[in-house]
Amino acid sequence: MMLPHLTYADAVHAALTNADLVPDTLTVNAPVDTDDLTVLLQWNDMAIRWSSEAGWRHESAHSSGPLPLDRFADPAALISTAALLQQGQQPVTHHKRWAAAQLLDRAISDWTIALSDGHAQAAPRT
User: Fold this and answer.
1) Which residue of 58, 69, 96, 126 lies most exposed, with the fewest beta carbons within 10 A?
2) How many angstroms from the chain centroid is the CA of residue 14?
C-alpha cells in the first residue's frame, strides 16, 4: 500500500522547486512502530518537518519549534514560511489548507486502519 502522504510531499516539493527553494534532502517516512507519517525537508542550515499527527515544525541555528501553519498547509504557505526562516525571520501565521487536505486526512485514516489490521507495510522513501 502506498504511503498516503506521498502526494502531499510531492506537492510541497514541487511548490518549493518552482519557488527555487529546493531542499537538499526530502525524506518521507512511516516508522513501523507508529501511525505517524513524516516528511523531512532539509537545507544546509535548517530543517522543516511535517508530521501527520503534529503538523509542521522547524529547526535551525537561530530558532526552532512548531510552525504557525495548518497541519495540511497549502504549499504556498510553506514556501512563504521557508523563505522567512532562511532569512532568519519569524514565520507568520497561515491558515490556508492544501486543496486536497480533506482527501489526505481520509487517506491517512484509512492507511492507519489498514496498518492496525496488518494489511499495509511502510518503508522510507528518499
Assistant:
1) 126
2) 13
